[in-house]
Every structure is written in structure tokens, then in C-alpha cells.
Specification:
mainly alpha, two-stranded antiparallel ribbon, rod-shaped, coiled coil
Amino acid sequence: MIFTEAPITEYERSRNEEIMKNDRELERLGIKTLVPIVNNTSVERKGEDHEVSGSLYIGQESGQESEDCEDEEVISKVASAAHTKNPTRSGNTSVRGTKASKRVVAPQEQDVPNRVTRQKTRDLALVSSPDPQQRQEKYKDVQPTAIDLFEDFHCSKNKGFSEPIKKAIADMEAIMAEPVQDEEQPKSVNYAVSQVVKSTTFLQIVGIQPNSNNSSKGCTSSKVQQLRADLEIEKKSKEDLRHEFEAMKKESKMTMETLKKESEMARAKQAEEIKKIKKASQETMSFRQMLGPRDG
């Protein structure tokens, strides 16, 4: 039975090109033993390829592993030969070959780390995030607040809350418990959480818009309201003073009119009395004149 040689694959062609490049580099270093080593290894691999013709599924994995082992064996032999021939230049060679060498990786192997990384990221996300079903059973018909979600996200099953988390929760509760004035509204839960938590990721998860100007806007709004209230009080005070002044002016006018009338009445009475006195005096004089000539 005659065995025909299988055609060379793309992977084998890339591998041979890389070996030739390494061979040229080794020749530059004074080492010429790479070609016989490669030829012997290729003959051994071809003989093993004809012997191993089992299952298609198992053969693919074992073939890949055998190729990797052969690569490691060739590189190990070349490295040892390079160290023997030129020990002063051994600093430029490593276990994988020279610094300029690069191992050609099959396309199937390149995709494996990405898939593993994505799978690990997905597993970590599932572990770190709270179970929505457990959260629904915990709160049932009550909508959880931002502080409740903060406690759920930062509570450890084994250790509970850490000291920074306890302090953050206490600060939130202290902000909500702050006394407010008559016209101001009490602090909301979202406002307390946004003032304590600096992580924009958590604020976005719980539905709070991370905005650094919220506190300044709230302070500005309260100051404007306070100024408006002070302005209204000042206006009212001025209005009251104006009414009071008008009332005093009116009262003073009435008093002046009353005094004027009384003064006029007094002058009229006095004038009448003077007129009566003059009349009486004239009558007395006339009576004396009438009596005077008779006595003489």
C-alpha cells in the first residue's frame, strides 16, 4: 500500500517561514544546526501523522498538542545549541528563541482567550450584582429607595457592611434628618444619596442623574426664595408704614380743622362780647349826657 504525502497547510507554511527566519538569525550568530534539527523533527512528525488516524474529533486536539510539543522541542534544542556555540551572546536568546522570533498562533487558539475573558466578566457581573428575584421578594410591593439599593449593593453576606459604608449610610440619614424652615421642603432620599455617593456608575444604576451642580442649584434656589421672602416682608413693612403715615396725616388734618373751628367760634364770641360792651358803654355815656344839663 502506497501512502501519499498530505499537502502542506497554511499553518505549516507559516511555521516553516518562521523557522527559516530563525535559522537566518542563528546563522548570523554562528549557529548552523537548525536545519538538520528541523528536518529530523519533520520526518518524525510525518511518520506520527500516518500512524495516528483515529477519531476526527480527538485527532484535531491531539494533533494541535503534538505540534506545540514539537515546537517546544525544536526551540529547546536550538536554544541549547546556541548556548553551546556562542555563550557570550546567550543574553540575546531565551527559551522561546531570539528576541526577534515570534510564535505563529493558529486562529482557533487566538479566539480562546477572548471567549474566556468575556465568560469571566459575565460571571463576575452575575456574582457582584444583586439577584432581582431576591430583591423583589425582599421588598414585595414596596418600591426600594436609593438608600435601600445602596445597602443591597454594598452588603457582604459574610461581613455585612464595612466601616466606610456604615459612615456613608449615617451621613445620608443625617442629611435627611436636617431641620428645614417653614417655606423649604425636606431633603429627598435621592438628594441625600447624591450628596454622599461620588460614584456616577451607582447613581446611574439607581436612576439618579449624576450632576455636580445639583447642590449649587439647590443652594441658589433657596437663597433666591429667601431673598424674595425678605423683599416681600420689606414691601409689606413699607406699606404698613405708609398706611400708618396716611392715618396720622388724616388725623392731624382733622385735629387742625377742629382747632380752627373752635378758634373761629372763640373769636366770634369774643367779638360779640366786645360789641355788647361797646353798646353798653355808649348807652351809659348817652344817659350821662342827658342827666348833665339838668343838674347845672
